Amino acid sequence: MTDIVSPPSDRTTRSSKVGRKLAAGWNRIGEQTRFYFLTLAAIPDAAINYRSEVLRLIAQMGLGAGALAAVGGTVVIVGFMTVTTGAVVAAQGYTQFQSVGVEAFTGFASAFFIPRLIVPGTAQVTLTATVGAGATAQMGAMRINEEVDALEVIGIRSVAYLAATRVLAGTIVVIPLYAVALMMGFLAARVGTTVVYGQASGVYDHYFNTFLSTSDLVWSFVQTISMIVVVMLICTYYGFTASGGPAGVGEAVGRAVRASMVVGALVLVAVTLAVYGQSGNFRLAG
Amino acid sequence: METGQAISPLTSSTVSGLTWARPIAKPLRGLGSFIGMSLDVLVGIFTTKLAWQEYLAQSWFVARVSLLPAVLMMIPYALINTFIFNILLGEFGAADFSGAGAAFFNVNQIGPLVTVLVTAGASATAMCADLGARTIREELDAQRVMGINPIQSLVIPRVLAATTVSVALMGVVVLVGMVASFFFCTYFLHVSAGAFVAGMTVVTGLGDVVVSLVKAFLFGLGAGLIACYKGISVGGGPAGVGNAVNETVVFAFMVLFTINIIVTAVGVQFTLK
Predict the structure, then answer these.
(1) What is the pLDDT of residue A197?
(2) Contacts with B, A 71-90, CB within 8 Å
(3) Which of B257, B214, B246 is nearest to A185 (CA)?
(4) C-alpha–C-alpha distance, residues A152 and A154, integer Å
(5) Burial, B47: exposed, middle or buried (Cβ in 10 Å; 0-12, 13-18, 19+)?
């Protein structure tokens, strides 16, 4: 009598476990896609009905909150990070060029690599860390404290009010931040090369101005904007769906940072190949 | 002003000076206690018994969390870099040197950069979230009550694990980057495979690899210390844990990028002949 229901064999349990895992992963992809489209569709709603919330978030994202505001907020952090990466052009580029006797080209390296590679890359990780992860932390805490449910109960559209406003504010705030990043990157490379390594500033400026192309700057701006939209979407999703108490918020922030850095790198390479893939947009002979 | 007078009989000028200095004093106090914890850890590594099991478990945890992001991030960065540099080489008519360019960028800058992103963005966040959860559940206080020093039992193994895994990741990242660059150059940019391999060691040598490994060691140490400090000083409920992880990423990025530029500037003095 006892063996009417045979215990499931090892193989069936394993295959059902794999099947359940696959189904969960598949569902998660669908859920994320649905959230992203809902958020993007809610952006006009957020811009019209929750304008004051957008303005508040812009101010908060630009300056940062808590301990981040104490070190000068997002502006200073972005500026600092691009200084360190822009200075790499001087530290590595100048000495490497010098070893083959063409250190005059450091200005060229700065004009070529900083807008194409260094500033979009640095801006991506910095904005993910400050603006993106900050949004996840805030929204995750709201979710755990059941504030999101409270918003729904009092008739506020939570996706529009929380997620769409953050995507919109992030996109607006990145415009001045990008300008700061680019200027600090160029400044660090120039100061590093001319003051620290002692190159004549006329030589540097000549090669820098010759090879700096306006369209490169515009494209690198487009790269950064497209990337921040994707990063904000991912970060708001992980914040919106945080669960599991205080520890869950921390986990959600970690997961959001990992996911958005990987996806951000993919967006970067996709836009680069789309922009420079055909022609390279570069002519040595002017 | 009143609170200042209540604590100690200070003159009014000092007290007003203190209220003015309070916003500065808070981050300074944070910095001070971070340095205090770091010293505790550095001394503790040599004076206390290493918690081997925790160290191995944490190493496995950190490696598991950061391996996939490392590979997924290195491939796009290696491709973008090889691609941009090849535009330049193609213009000079020196596309055969793309192997030299790929090795130079992957070993000297992109490899360390991706290691920074992974140790700060993946390992440190996971570590801070885990430790922050323990702090908020008052597990650390419970350990102290039982006479166990959390620095010895939790922090030191984690810092060591982050350092070990960071150095190992550096190797993986450079390998993945070189393989990705190789296939990208030979199959998409039509560089001959032999020329690519022959060019790899033209400007990049053992010295560059050693400098990169030193960088990775310092990255892991820095990120591990910051993650653990933020993790054990968590307070204030769900928002506190979220903010702690967020601050971990930001501070780790800032410190690691600074280490990168300093070690680069010092390292090139040794690697260039």
Answers:
(1) 86
(2) 71, 77, 80-81, 84-85, 87-88
(3) B257
(4) 6
(5) exposed
Reference B75, options B228, B179, B170; nearest CA is B179
Query: Residues B127-146: pLDDT tens digits?
Result: 888 888 888 888 889 999 99
E-only strand ranges, B4-67: none
CA distance B108 to B215: 10
Give residues with Cβ within 8 angstroms of B178, minimum separation 6: B78, B102, B103, B106, B200
Domain residue limits, chain A: 31-65+81-274
CA neighbor of B106 nearest in space, from B215, B183, B179, B193: B179
| Cα distance between residue A86 and residue A82, in whole Å | 6
Q: With a cut of 0.90, is the ipTM above it?
A: no
Q: How far apart are CA B216 and CA B108, in angstroms?
A: 11
CA–CA dist B250, B255 (Å, integer): 9
Q: Do A130 and B250 touch (CB under 8 A)?
A: yes
Please compute the mean of the pLDDT values over residues B94-115 and round it to a whole number.
84
A274/B74 Cα distance (integer angstroms): 19
Ranges of H-type helices in chain A: 10-49, 51-63, 67-70, 73-88, 95-99, 106-113, 119-127, 133-144, 147-153, 158, 165-191, 201-211, 214-240, 245-276
> Which chain B residues touch A128 with a CB distance below 8 Å?
121, 249
How far is it, in rounded angstroms, from Cα A135 to Cα A236? 6
**pLDDT value for B199:** 84
**A85/B268 Cβ within 8 A:** no
Residues of chain A neighbouring B254 (CB-CB closer than 8 A): 77, 80-81
pLDDT of residue A281: 64
Average pLDDT over residues A27-50: 91
Cα–Cα distance, B220 to A109 (Å, whole number): 30
Judge whether A122 and A268 are in contact, CB under 8 Å. Answer: no
Residue written as token pair 């491939």: B75
Contacts of B69 in chain A (CB under 8 A): 258, 261-262
Integer Cα distance of B154 and B139 in angstroms: 11
Query: Are A110 and A93 within 8 A, CB to CB?
Result: yes
B232, B248 contact by CB (below 8 A): no
Q: What is the DSSP letter of A129?
A: I
Place of tokens 């360019």: B101
What totals of helices (H) and strands (E) does chain B contain, helices first?
A: 12, 0
- Smallest CA-to-CA distance from A95 within A231, A222, A202, A192 is with A192
- Characterize B50-83 residue by residue with b for buried, 16 or more Cβ atoms within 10 angstroms of its Cβ, and e for exposed: ebeebbeebbebbbebbbebbbbbbbbbbbbbbb
